[in-house]
Amino acid sequence: MNAEPLDVNTVEALVADATAAPSLHNAQPWAFRYLRDMGVLRLYADLERTLPHTDPENRGLCISCGAALLNLRAAAAAAGLAPVLRLLPDPAFAEFLAEVHLCGTGPPDGTLARLAPSIHRRHSSRLPFHDEGIPVATKESLSEAARVEGAELVFPDPWHVLSILELVRDAEGREALDPGVRGETVRWTRTEPSAATGATDGIPGEAFGPRQRGTSAPVRDFAVGRPVPGRGWALFEKNPNIALLGTARDEPVDWLRAGQALERVLLRATADGLVASVTSQPLEWPEIRWAVRDPVSAMAHVQMVIRLGYGPEGDASPRRPVADLLDVL
């Protein structure tokens, strides 16, 4: 493998792939610094993009940044690189999340490289899915993708899915009564299309999806009561395919690993012809988060609720220019 530091254009392309990852409210809470002479790319939390009411512990921020790391690793592998990753390399600086030595001397990860084409195809779909089950072999493949990253993915039984849907509705009710949470949602979402606003972050109106007739799918309604031009109503799947992603522990390093596992699962799902949306609504309230856990599994801490299925792909959300989030030294 080439041990020479990478040129800036290559690093910019890798960062563009990394930042195609999902993030809470599409806040894109990441910043990168490339140490050119060392061939090292550092990932930092952008603390100006936190959601203190929705995500007070920055758990969602770390999961989002972990997802960006997985994209970076996949894109690097596809480019023939073997990056070496260190999480939380300096405990004295909590916002310094990871250091990536881009030119390791090992062989590229072929499995990750094959997921790279899915990076820019993956979009959260808040549209109705078909009422169709997912084959067992596909579920096993997705679970294995999570295990490789040190996390667990389980598909709960139908009775527990109903419980999760109730917890989502509970969380929605709590949000409606919390002006801080509502304010953050309004701040990071726009009822107009992205083409009309020119925004490079947040969730645009075309990505909201239709309103649900009934409440059969765990899809967050980002409108929070605001009118959205052209937004209609639709019936969603009656029996949504729900997966829970979790970890054994619940510290920042576990959240970063969960983010990598989440994105690996989402890329694997995209490659397998699935679409997905994610929600952390019931996980954002400590008093109900414990109840999301599947009692028949060994999972200790649920980090994300994932809705999977077959159906239309979602609209892409805007992304910040690489020049705004990458420093080169």
How would you sum up this structure, described in words?
The model has no long low-confidence stretch (mean pLDDT 95). This protein is 33% helix and 16% strand. The protein has helices spanning 8-18, 59-78, 110-115, 136-148, 158-176, 179-188, 194-197, 252-271, 286-292, and strands at 30-35, 40-45, 84-87, 96-101, 152-154, 211-212, 233-234, 241-247, 275-279, 301-309, 326-328. The strands form three sheets. Strands 3-4-2-1-11 form a five-stranded mixed β-sheet. Strands 5-8-10-9 form a four-stranded antiparallel β-sheet, sandwiched between helices. It contains nine helices and eleven strands. It is α+β, with helices and mostly antiparallel strands and 329 residues long.
State the main characteristics.
alpha+beta, globular, 329 residues, five-stranded mixed sheet
